[in-house]
Amino acid sequence: MKHLLPVILILSGIVVQSCVDCGPQAELSARIRFNELYELDSIYALNAVSQEPITRQLTDGTPRQVDELPISLLSDTTTYIFRSGQRIDTLSIYYQRIFRYKGGCGFVTDAGEPATGRHYYSTFSKTEIDYNTYVRPGQQPWFGSNPGSGISIYILP
């Protein structure tokens, strides 16, 4: 019985270290940050299956940041409409959808920088987009298993 606990601890450590990081297990989303205080009344994602995640973030989030807006995997672009008082702004982001096989996971979904053409269309005064992978290579870390940062958008209204 004395030797059973160390054996269990060692085996559980080996099992956890051998887990492959398969990336996000839900719909991909873009992170949006506003560089100035921007009181949003509403955000609408065109052709989104549900507006509920966006509405929930507006009531729970801070005025400067909306963390996760869903991106469409049916096309290489997603358009958002932002409303603040009488002001209405539009942001269309362009990306390349990536479907690939990753050993131990099967097929994974990722999105990256478009190979050619524009990266966005925006009516905001300044917009920047950073493209990173959603699926990190290699093994899942021992602690702090977070997916890659994905698409990050910085907006100056």
Automatic annotation (TrEMBL):
Protein name: Lipoprotein
Source species taxonomy: Bacteria, Pseudomonadati, Bacteroidota, Cytophagia, Cytophagales
